[in-house]
Every structure is written in structure tokens, then in C-alpha cells.
From TrEMBL:
This is Sugar ABC transporter substrate-binding protein. GO terms for cellular component: outer membrane-bounded periplasmic space. InterPro entries: Bact_Solute-Bind_Prot2 (IPR050555), ChvE-like (IPR049784), Peripla_BP_I (IPR028082), SBP_2_dom (IPR025997). Residues 1-25 form the signal peptide. It comes from Cellulomonas chitinilytica. The keyword Signal applies.
Amino acid sequence: MRRITFAAMGAVVALGLTACSGGGAGSTDDTTGAASGDKGDITVGVAMPTQTSERWIADGKAVKEGLEKAGYKVDLQYAGDDIPTQQQQIDQMITKGEKLLIIASIDGTALANQLQAAADAKIPVIAYDRLIRDSENVDFYVTFDNYKVGVQQATSLLTGLGVLKADGTPGDKKGPFNVELFAGSLDDNNAHFFYKGAMDTLQPYINDGTLVVKSGQTDIEQVATLRWLQETAQKRMEDLLTSTYSDGSKVNGVLSPYDGLSRGILTALQNAGYGPGIADGMPVVTGQDAEIASVKLINDGVQWSTIFKDTRKLADQSVKTAEAFLSGGTPEANDTESYDNGVKVVPSYLLSSDIVGKDEIQPLLIDSGYWTADEVASGQAG
């Protein structure tokens, strides 16, 4: 995979919130901690949630290669979306004396004991893309601007419906449009940011009647999808079609926060007689992560859009953050206000994302080397 190398955008150094705040795991004033020793003697533990998503496979590979290129040893573990497995893997990393942890959590509330053990051993902890909650022992957070991702998803939905033009100005279509809403897993902090960004954008159009959520399901608890599972999203879409649209009315758009969910939603719609493509009556369906199967669907006119979060940049920024900790320094943060994990505001570095529709596949995905033209055509990674 070539899509593996997150280049930083401008940064603001956080003076009042350093990674060592509260005497947490990031303290490097003790020479027995991460700052001591040669790079080749230092092992970094990388805990990833699952290998069922090509996105997380690419992330793990990217972080591992970046750290190894910087001279460190790497212990990369995938937990199969099983919380006890991830807890055990992190426990083992601590027991083995690994000097820093990069964790993409399955459940952001389930690692308090592991993080306390890391703090006791003076092991810095970087939360990778998913904020770890309810612990003072999270030293740094590297992610995208997840609220903005939600805004982008909602904006893309409005553009696909014709309510907005591509430049953000009002479009020609006035509605009303029937839309249904999906959110991610409630135990993933990002899901809440995505949904808030999307709903803050969509709510004025719901209020004025341009958009109609015919099912009435608008609370995140009603529309959440546990573990981001495709089959769960497909089943909910099937149930919505049966319960809400059996009167002959049609769904015009679906807010989906992730490509895997989008494919389940699209399958349910196709099985109900929609499509096969947008030109044939398939609703406008959004997504996220630019997974290759969904990029092909966008290219083929089936899925409307995805949000491209270039995980090569995320991996790069994580490596830079790790190097700062391991050399005894303080990582750069460009956000020290947004990410309160319930115990502390975690200093963060936020990266930017892009809306990808059919016209953006070439410049954003192919020209950048993230996917090749052949991969887009086949829908499979080479």
C-alpha cells in the first residue's frame, strides 16, 4: 500500500496545556522514562482496533513504517474489535516495557486501568484518531477536525439534493426532500463530533421544511450504529423502508458517516428497488474514509460522496508526536480547547479533510497516489 506516509498543516504551540499536565503519563523529567536510551532500543506499542476495515490496516502499516523509518522498534497489534483483547494487548505492551503507546481505541471509555498503568510506568499515551475518555492519562490526541467532517458530510448531502451548489450558494431545488440519518458507534467519541457537525448544518433545513426526516429519528441514540457495522446499517435501512416508506413515498437522501455503512444502506435500497444508480433514482448517500469499494461506487454513480481523510498525514503527525515525547520534548498542538475527555482537555493536533465526489476522484485520490486508476475501476486495492 502506498497510502501510508498525515503531513502537518500550520500549528499553534499550546503553552498552558502541555502533554505532562496533571503529572500524567507524558512526564519526561524522569531520566528512567521514555526520553532515555538509544532509538534502536526503544519499542513503541501501536494498538489498532480491527482489520475488518481497510482503513485501519492502512493506518497500522503507515504508523509502523513511519516509526521504523525514524529508528524505533514497533509492536503493532490489532484487537479484532474486541474490547478485552485490546485491553490485554495494551497490558502486555506495558509489561514488556514499551516506551510509548499509540492507541486507536475500540471503546474510548474502556481503557482507564490500562492508562493508569501506563502513567505509573511513565509511558506517554497518544490517542490515535479516537479520543480516549474518562482518564487524565491521555497525553495527546492526533486526529482530523471531526466536527468539520460532519459539516462536510451534511454539506455534500445538501449539494447532492440540489439545495446547495458546489460553491455553497443556494441551489435550484427547494424540496421537500425525505432524508434519513445514520450515526456511528456511540462508544466512539468521533461519532458524536461527526453527528453534531452534520446536524448543526442540516437543522435549519429541517426546521424550514426543506428536509423531512420522515421516520422522526433524529437523536443520535436512535440513529447510532454499534461498532460501525455494515450489516447493522443495512438492517436499519431495511426496517426504515418497511416501517416508514411502505406508503409509496421515496427516500431522497441518506446521511451516512462511514463508507462501510453506506454500502449496507445502498444494498438495502437496491434490494427495495431503488437505483441502480443516482441517475435512476438512487438516493444521495454520503460516506467517509474513501474506501476503495465506495470510491468505485462513487465513480459508477451509485454512492454520492465520501470524506477523504488522508491517513498518510495522520500517521506522519503521530510519528512526529511520538518523536517529541521520546526525545523528552512537548509535541506541537493546534487545538487545546475542543477535546474534553471528561477529565481534562487533551492537547490535540487536527488535520483537514476533503469532500470527494466523482469529479474529485482524479485530483484528490489518484493524482496523490492514494489509489490508482486501476484500483478505482476494479474497486479493489492492488
